[in-house]
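Quick one: structure tokens for this chain, please?
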Amino acid sequence: MSDYYDLFLAVDLVPDLPEPVLLELRWLLGEGDRPAELHATDWESWGGPWQAFAGGAASPGFDGADVSLLVRALDKPSRDGSAPWALTVRTCVHEDDFGVTMDVVTWLLQYGTTVGWVGFVRDSVQGQVRHLVRHEYGFDLVDLRPAGQPQRATWPSPQRQQD
């Protein structure tokens, strides 16, 4: 069985995202045509480009669906009054594609305005979760393991009503 990675990314991007970047991002999300030039990574060394963040289908390796959405964050204007872009991605990444996908994440986060937690990566074999933490020099994948016993808050499930 192949290993898969569950990638979740939630980040605000600069309001004045350059048009070539916006076009490429929309293509990566499955929301637009492929631009003539791609800059996110050296796709040819990975076997050619594909829409790495296109959603809209059941995840092949995890429960739930792969989804992606890019919208203007109109209710969160910048100091100059312009609205940043808000991006959310949840996608399943095959182990063979993990390197190129993280190249694309690196390219994308250089346009980010969010500092701190921007997502996580979970592997399908061990279930290990590593958090993506963005800072001014890039981002880190951080393995957070609590010392001692983990603290839990249990939420009871309501009883299903019988029809």
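The longest strand covers residues 4-13.
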